[in-house]
Amino acid sequence: MPKKALVFMRYGPYRSLKLTVEHRTFRLQGMISVLQRAGHRVVLQKIEDWDALELLVNGEVIFQCKISDLDFGGDGNLDPLCEKAKLAVLHAY
Asked: Is the pTM of this model over 0.85?
């Protein structure tokens, strides 16, 4: 895959602190930072699947996880899911 890929980050609503279920990007910030530092362009897209995160490159889902499994805030350097996502984008076709 080219070093500069267009990554579509599709994310669903999730419950934060036992409050209402909404689309939020707080937990996505670390992954967005990691992908952008690697030279990729990230486009956010809301979906209706609850607590779901998908990364698409060239129309193919290359990475999936639960949003609630991501670390809250930060730069993503210490979150192992962010590293897995970065490698998935690197190895995408």
From this structure: yes
Residue 11 forms part of a structural domain: yes
The answer to whether 20 and 59 have CB atoms below 8 angstroms apart is no
**CATH number of 20's domain:** 3.40.30
- The Cα 48–Cα 90 span in angstroms is 27
E strand residue ranges, the chain: 6-11, 14-15, 21-22, 41-46, 52-57, 60-66
Domain count for the chain, please give it: 1
Tokens in use for 48?
Answer: 């209706």
pLDDT digits (tens, 9 = 90+) for 30-65: 999 999 999 999 999 999 999 999 999 999 999 999
Q: Is the residue at 1 inside a domain?
A: no
User: Cβ-count burial of 40 within 10 angstroms (0-12 exposed, 13-18 middle, 19+ buried)?
Assistant: buried
Q: Is 19 exposed, middle or buried (0-12, 13-18, 19+ CB in 10 A)?
A: exposed
